[in-house]
Design goal:
With about 850 residues, the chain is an alpha/beta fold. It has five domains: about 190 residues, P-loop containing nucleotide triphosphate hydrolases (Rossmann fold, 3-Layer(aba) Sandwich); about 100 residues, no CATH class; about 210 residues, 3-Layer(aba) Sandwich (Rossmann fold); about 70 residues, Alpha Horseshoe (Serine Threonine Protein Phosphatase 5, Tetratricopeptide repeat); about 190 residues, Restriction Endonuclease (3-Layer(aba) Sandwich). It contains 37 helices and 23 strands. Strands 1-10-5-2-4-3 form a six-stranded parallel β-sheet. The chain has a six-stranded mixed β-sheet with strand order 16-17-18-19-21-22, sandwiched between helices. It has a five-stranded parallel β-sheet with strand order 11-15-14-12-13. Helix 15 packs parallel to helix 26 and helix 28 runs antiparallel to helix 29.
């Protein structure tokens, strides 16, 4: 028998280092003859920049990033004969990467937990493929700075999906005391800070959270943390180091540089930024290649990996559409259906498509609780192993589902017939405590919206994985529809996804029945020529290269550099650099400015410069009331006077490129105006309801520690002073103490708004007060009346949001509807607020 291997080895093997030439000489899977244009372009560019410390490569989802990364890895092996590491977000992607490498004959070895590295990795003969957790952990086989293990010095590291690795890498540096696993430890550590929250007038929120009644999150003030961190350190060192052996060595000397967060489920210690310098294999590596999607903001790469801005702001990319899959993206909430009927409609559709027609169907949801609502029509694999097994069944064609996956927005590749219908339900806000912390802190700020956009992209990209592939994507859920309907949010998406969503929105607006929805879906699945031509032409028209968000990169860069100066003890330099950036940057939004001012205050506090600390924490809070309230008393700033109600109301509607998106926002918001909601959720929703009505509102007690729970300014002379007793037992009467709080808040209102007439309102489950309580002119807002108000507001919004008239005509229409809907200031007071009686 002819020995082809011997014949090949007997030839004088020329060392090839150009990745395009390497590809030309490799065996190829059936049907693959050449690289995509986009792959060839970025490989050519990389080869010219291959000696740069950091390189960012951007390709469309499904554009063949994995093959590009593997060819680069082989090029480096051929040139340097040094070890090369290829990192993936999770084990499923590790397995897929190795399969891809085998298809092309690129030698790889998997990371093997509990055993030594393969010799071929050490000698530079094979690429080591592992996940992020294998590299970034406190007992890493690659060695940690100051540890006892040998430090591995790779010639290059390739980081796949680097733009979404922030949460993954942060998690490896985060120590969590989980309540379910260690109730005593959780109670010990949270109670250590109870008095600190009492001093901040947040004792009620603290008690609600640690008792499990509130799903919110609290940050321990850094000044409290500095005073007590040694106690926490000793508690963990003495009792918990073995349980947290993967994290403890990384943060035990970095407590001063950590956020501390408290939720109902956990006590969390997480660094301000991942301490990636603790892993020399990564930090000191001569070549680091970051693989990213075609988004405009790669600031997460700087924040996560401390990459140099000069490399990140000049990514290697291609203008080619090669690799962009065909997706028909439909949104039922923007169709002419009743929004409340959409879940049942999608359940029927899912069952019909998968069972009757045998079309592979997958549903992506945001949580375990939402997944359970689909169990009547879909299989729900709960564990990673079950998920992997289900994905293989879909990929192999032995199952068509439907499957529902909870919080699986990456690591699942479902090309071709393994998924033709993908339903993405709900806004993927992230599941980590730090994600929740950012969501609470930044609300609708740019940083949060960029993170949300990336998760949305990841999710809807699961079902179509390259050129020639196609998938129908249904996006549903009031929160995600509201987010996508805001014109300002679309800029965070890649240009191709933005184009497909715009196409889908136009299609969705013309669908008015379940039958027409199914007929529209079939036109994609049946490869209707008119649809495919429309998609191709429109994508080419709308698609463009995403502009690099230089401002976001500069912000991330200044934070990372200041963090390095802070850790190295150069406090004054760190403060000066941040402050200069704030003063010189006109484009800096107020939320980010507040975030940076709080960073300055924190550095000053550790520097023991009390004057700078107090000054900047006060400025931070003035910029963003979701940051830490300063220790000094805050001067109250009266609200700006309300404008015309109809104009303000219509202005909110016009923030959405589809007016029904505002209706979706309203439904999501008022879902928290129920007894089951936490006090914080209820009060925020009540304030937001006033804004939807065109009024000016705030939560003075939350912001300033004084005043009412909620304040509505209805016009230039009338205000509602509201105390929310939303979670009281529906049979309990209003007590003298509770009413006293309202009277105290009312005195505050008269002092701050002396020219206004105020109406005292208690949001209370009933109309009964105790005999000792003299309510006088105090009004009650009961759940019945609140629901009546919500219903009337929704009817008004339905009329306005489903109207096709111009903005000017919409204001005129709104003015007329306000009178007939009993929603003008005087009519609201007359129709929804009721006097108390005596029990």
């Amino acid at each position: 028998m002819i020995d082809f291997k011997k014949l090949r080895e007997s030839k004088n093997q020329q060392i090839i280092i150009n990745p395009k030439e390497i590809f030309r000489r490799l065996p190829k899977p059936l049907g693959i003859n050449d690289l995509y244009t986009s792959q060839a372009e970025v490989l050519e560019k990389w080869f010219k920049h291959r000696n740069d410390k950091d390189v960012v490569i951007k390709l469309h989802t499904g554009g063949g990033k994995t093959l590009v990364g593997l060819l680069i890895a082989q090029s480096i092996l051929n040139e340097t004969h040094e070890p090369v590491i290829y990192i993936c977000p999770n084990n499923q992607l590790v397995e897929q990467t190795i399969i891809k490498a085998n298809e092309y004959g690129i030698p790889t070895v998997p990371y093997s937990k509990g055993s030594d590295f393969h010799d071929h990795f050490y000698t530079g003969k094979s690429v080591l493929v592992c996940n992020y957790h294998a590299l970034f952990n406190g007992i890493s086989k690659f060695g940690i700075r100051g540890g006892g293990k040998e430090i591995i010095r790779p010639g290059a590291i390739i980081l796949d999906d680097a733009h979404v690795a922030f949460s993954i890498v942060r998690d490896t540096f985060t120590l969590k005391i989980e309540r379910t696993e260690d109730e005593d430890g959780y109670n010990t550590l949270t109670n250590l800070f109870r008095n600190d929250f009492k001093e901040m007038s947040k004792l009620g929120t603290f008690d609600d959270i640690v008792s499990g009644h509130d799903f919110g999150i609290l940050e321990v003030p850094y000044w409290s943390w500095k005073k007590k961190s040694s106690v926490v350190h000793e508690f963990i060192r003495a009792n918990k180091t073995e349980e947290h052996k993967f994290v403890w060595p990384l943060i035990r000397d970095a407590f001063d540089y950590c956020h501390v967060l408290i939720t109902k489920d956990s006590f969390v210690i997480t660094p301000i930024f991942p301490l990636v310098d603790m892993i020399p294999a990564f930090y000191d590596c001569k070549r680091r290649i970051f693989m990213s999607a075609t988004i405009g903001d790669d600031s997460a790469i700087i924040r996560t990996f401390e990459a140099k801005i000069e490399y990140v702001e000049k990514p290697l990319s291609s203008k080619s559409l090669a690799g962009v899959s065909e997706r028909m993206i439909l949104t039922p909430e923007l169709m002419k259906f009743n929004m409340n009927d959409v879940p049942e409609l999608l359940h029927k559709l899912t069952k019909h498509v998968s069972e009757k027609l045998g079309i592979a169907t997958v549903i992506l949801v945001t949580s375990d609780a939402v997944a359970k609502s689909w169990e009547a029509v879909a299989n729900y694999p709960k564990t990673p192993a079950k998920v992997a097994e289900s994905v293989k069944l879909l990929q192999g064609g032995t199952s068509k589902g439907p499957y529902v996956f909870a919080n699986r927005y990456d690591g699942i590749d479902l090309p071709n017939d393994s998924c033709r219908l993908l339903i993405s339900s709900g806004l993927p806000r992230g599941t980590s405590d730090y994600d929740l912390y950012l969501a609470n802190t930044f609300m609708n700020a740019e940083l949060l919206n960029n993170n949300l956009a990336q998760r949305i992209e990841q999710g809807i990209g699961r079902g179509a994985r390259g050129p020639g592939d196609y998938c129908v994507v249904i996006i549903t859920g009031k929160d995600i529809i509201s987010w996508l309907s805001r014109t300002s949010n679309l800029r965070f998406l890649t240009s191709s996804t933005r184009a497909q969503i715009q196409m889908g929105r136009e299609i969705s607006q013309d669908i008015d029945s379940l039958k027409e929805l199914w007929e529209t879906i079939k036109r994609c699945l049946d490869r209707d020529k008119e649809w495919t031509e429309y998609h191709a032409e429109t994508l080419a028209e709308y698609d463009s290269t995403n502009d690099i968000n230089i401002n976001a990169l500069k912000l991330a860069d200044i934070e990372r550099k200041a963090f390095r100066l802070f850790r190295d003890g150069y406090f004054e330099k760190a403060i000066t650099s941040i402050n200069k950036y704030c003063e010189d940057t006109d484009s800096l939004d107020v939320n980010n400015k507040g975030w940076l001012y709080q960073f300055i205050a924190r550095i000053a506090y550790y520097w023991e410069n009390n004057e700078v600390f107090q000054q900047f924490q006060k400025s931070a809070y003035a910029c963003n009331r979701n940051l830490l309230r300063p220790q000094v008393e805050i001067q109250y700033v009266p609200l700006t006077l309300p404008g015309k109600q109809a104009e303000a109301l219509v202005e909110m509607i016009n923030k959405y490129n589809n007016r029904r998106g505002h209706l979706a926002y309203f439904d999501e918001m008022v879902s928290h105006l129920v007894p089951e909601a936490s006090a914080n959720q209820f009060e925020q929703a009540l304030a937001d309801l006033g804004v939807v009505l065109g009024f000016i509102t705030e939560r003075p007690d939350k912001t300033y520690g004084k005043g009412p729970d909620v304040l509505w300014l209805l016009n230039n002379e009338l205000g509602l002073v509201i105390e929310a007793k939303s979670r009281k037992n529906k049979k309990n009467a209003l007590t003298k103490e509770q009413h006293g709080q309202l009277l105290e808040a009312f005195e505050w209102f008269k002092k701050e708004y002396p020219t206004y007439k105020g109406i005292r309102v208690s949001m209370h489950p009933n109309l009964i007060a105790t005999k000792s309580t003299t309510t006088g002119e105090t009004k009650a807002l009961t759940y019945n009346k609140l629901n009546e108000l919500i219903s009337n507001v929704r009817n008004l919004l339905v009329d306005l949001c489903e109207s096709a008239i111009s903005d000017e005509q919409l204001v005129i229409r709104c003015e007329k509807l306000l009178e007939t809907s009993k929603l003008t200031p005087q009519l609201i007071i007359k129709n929804y607020f009721v006097p108390f009686g005596v029990e």
